[in-house]
């Protein structure tokens, strides 16, 4: 299954996030495919792009396990200084 569907018709491109089993969580594969879809749109004659989703959720955000690699035999660590999207407040996450 493709991670991004791209359909174009009558000057309109429809770009669909297509990881419904993972609630369209963003991982490296999906973000690479999404970038390629935007590049395809920019190179096309379509003038409007609609970004939509397959499944129940638009996107739950980052697929954290797919982007954080913790080497074996590593002591627990803390990531600090990230901004929470809804409050713009700094937070911390223990691993």
Note down, in words, how this protein is organized.
The chain is α+β, with helices and mostly antiparallel strands and 95 residues long. Helix content is 21%, strand content 31%. The protein starts with a strand and ends with a strand.
Quick take:
The chain is built from 2 helices and 5 strands. By secondary structure, the protein is of the alpha+beta class. Helix 1 (28-43) links the parallel strand 2 and strand 3.
Largest sheet, strands/sense/barrel = 3 strands, mixed
Give the count of helical stretches.
2
Helix content: 10-25%
Report the average pLDDT across residues.
Answer: 81
Strand order of the largest sheet: 1-2-3
Instruction: Name the CATH architecture.
Output: 2-Layer Sandwich
């Amino acid at each position: 299954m493709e991670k991004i569907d791209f359909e174009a018709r009558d000057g309109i491109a429809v770009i669909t996030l297509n990881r419904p089993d993972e609630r369209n969580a963003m991982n490296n594969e999906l973000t690479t495919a999404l970038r390629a879809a935007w590049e395809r749109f920019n190179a096309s004659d379509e003038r409007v792009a609609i970004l939509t989703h397959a499944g129940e959720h638009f996107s739950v955000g980052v697929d954290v396990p797919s982007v954080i690699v913790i080497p074996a035999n590593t002591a627990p660590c803390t990531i600090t200084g990230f901004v929470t999207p809804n409050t713009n407040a700094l937070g911390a996450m223990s691993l």
